[in-house]
Design brief:
Length: about 575
Amino acid sequence: MKLVHYLLLLFCVGLSFCKTLHSLVQEDLLDEKCLKEKYTHQSCEKVFCHPWEKCIDGSCICKLPYQCPKAVMLVCATTGKTYNNYCQLKSHECIYPKTKFLTNGTCHGQGQFDLYLKYGNTESEGLVEVKLGNATAFICKKNWTITEANVACFYRGFKGGAVDYKKTFNFPGDVDVRITECLEANCRGLETTLAECVLTKRKANSKDLAGVVCHTQEAALLNDDSFQCVNGKYIPQEKTCDGINDCGDQSDELCCKGCRSGFLCKSGVCIPKKYQCNGELDCIGGDDEMNCEETGNSEHEVQEQAERLSANTDEDRKLLKSLLPKLSCGVRNTTHTRRKRIVGGKIATQGQFPWQVAIKEGEKLHCGGIYIGGCWVLTAAHCVRKNVAHRYQIWTGLLDWIKINNGTGIRRVNRVIIHEQYSGTTYQNDIALIEMKKHPTKTTCELENTTPACVPWSKYLFKPGDKCFISGLGQNEGIKNIYKLKWGEVKLIDNCSQYYSHRFFEKEMECAGTDDGSIDACKGDSGGPLVCMDSNDVFYVWGIVSWGENCGKPEFPGVYTKVSNYFDWISHHVGRSLIAQYNV
């Protein structure tokens, strides 16, 4: 937050404008531009999809049950049907919402799960009572938070979740209820029933019971300091960006510039502090699992001391995520020491940029390209033409054009696919795919000394100021040819329109360079990679060398095609399973 706001707050105690100023400070945590995108827990540009979902056009949608991992860990649904695993049941529920999780194991026809709100003034409020099998029990007030309250309200059909989880409700005088036990619930927040949460039996009395008020239009609390969730619910502004999913659709935690509490992902998402270093990637860039040390028993493990009545479906979900197909991409064979600044770039070594390819036409190196897996190379549209595909060669592992090094491979080209909306005038959509020919006796393109770069699905994986790498075999400053693969470190630059007014298109283009212009992509590097490394040391092809002015001069950064904008276009042609590192 801005220091001036804090200083003003110190002097505004008791004055009428304090509330307005406090609201201004709170709003500083929210990214207004991001909020316009209306992201929710179903937006896979910001969050990971569940194992029973896949990411299509930026949204998590239902998988078919057969697309789940094949692991056998039987679960029973409220319909009485047994499924091979939790993912298959949830994918079935995703399509047919009345199918709900009941318990782990095989169905034996015993009981059901249900949830009731009792002793409130309306159908949207009351004490929370559940039917589990043939028994009923109230939910404990202890550890009852907005997270669990939202799940209870979701089950009752209130799409906005809960608005109050602290309100107390009393038994009517004519009701004789003796309470000796209750069920403590611990949820992640996006379950559809409390049966999916960890339920633990506790000793209790009538004062220990949880109540809830579910969101309705009548229950909406609207004032000058309200934040409107994507689902229409209003919450206090100070409950945004605190790592807690008050909205129920997570829209209050997905566009943050800072966190009041919790952990801030580089992608602008606030997650609960307990999700950090829990062995699961919750930030799409993996930064929540960086610099972690071994920890002791988790909260749920401690609760094993009491009698648990439900399965830990969160652990099942984690296990299923670990069984999803994983790509081998973005990992190189050599280590690299980062430097703050590399004047003029450095000569690359074997295996340092294993996704770099050269496109040869006739007797000269025409452009660069990026190997992304299978038989596919990504390059700039201005580098290639469809009708001369037979004239191109793809050279892999090339380090020196004059003295050809060992490990260099050559592939012929089968076809060229240029983006349908490429403009040679503005360089918008400057992206193309090259399919290499397979060896006559092979079913795939097996390339030695080559590793694909990962293809990013989200524009939030990296942000302005991040350090990335460019590489190429093009010209150096002026007209001097280098003939060797060189690389340099650059940083992503925001607001590039200030350098290229009326020519820079933010959605399709990315800028990168150095303050003094000493590192830049030049003539002959076109089509080559701008790669960025995430927190797990995995490289993504963030940009394709496209255009620029005054190569290597200050205030003229290189312009790159923003690859994340074309994830769906790429996957349409090469197949999603080939490039989808996550959200498969």
